Amino acid sequence: MAVRIGRGSKSNFHINSALNQSELRQLQRALAGAATLENRVNTIIGIMKTSAEPARAQMQSDSPVDTGVLSNSFKSRKLLKVPKGVFGIRVGAARGSKLAGWRAHFTELGTKHHPAQPFIKKAIQKHEAGILQSLTRNLRNLLKTLT
After folding, report:
1. Total domain count for the chain?
2. Are 142 and 47 in contact (CB under 8 A)?
3. Cβ neighbourhood burial of 73 (10 Å; 0-12, 13-18, 19+)
4. What confidence score (pLDDT) does residue 2 get?
5. What is the C-alpha to C-alpha distance for residues 14 and 22, in angstroms, rounded to an integer?
6. Are 44 and 143 in contact (CB under 8 A)?
7. In terms of CB atoms within 10 Å, which end of the chain has fewer, N or C?
8. Residue range 53-70: average pLDDT?
9. Rounded distance, CA 66 to CA 88, Å?
């Protein structure tokens, strides 16, 4: 299994888990008890979100607070456009009603009027190894309980 943690954009990161064919078949057999394919994928996505939670929490706690809207915008969400056999989540600032994720890169990178206050990159660097270890451990535990 290849696990990649990469920058999705200026203010978030992705965790992708690509499986080779034999690993994909093994995981499909192990998850055969789940009612639907969607339940199987959601189980893996839940593991990814759990593994990335410390980084998300650090982003939220380290973000500069003016109104609190930016710090409340950090979420873990399932990637929607991924090839078959690839599961992924996006961890970072989210956009939407009452969310200010669209402006996180201004704080992270700075503007000509305000200096950069990097907090996302620090959270990723601090938790990258822990995310990989947690993800590997949780996926192994899932396979053990299902086989």
Report:
1. 1
2. yes
3. buried
4. 47
5. 24
6. no
7. C
8. 85
9. 31
Range of the domain at 128: 2-146
The greatest distance separating any two alpha carbons of the chain, rounded to the nearest whole angstrom, comes to 57
Checking DSSP bridges between strand 86-93 and strand 95-96, what pairing results, if any?
Answer: unpaired
Q: How many CA atoms lie within 13 A of 123 on its CB side?
A: 25
What's this model's pTM, rounded to 2 decimal places?
0.69
Would you call 107 helix, strand, or coil by DSSP? helix
pLDDT of residue 65: 79
115 pLDDT band, cuts 50/70/90, is very high
The CA distance from 9 to 51, in Å, is 20
C-beta of residue 15 within 8 angstroms of C-beta of residue 82: no
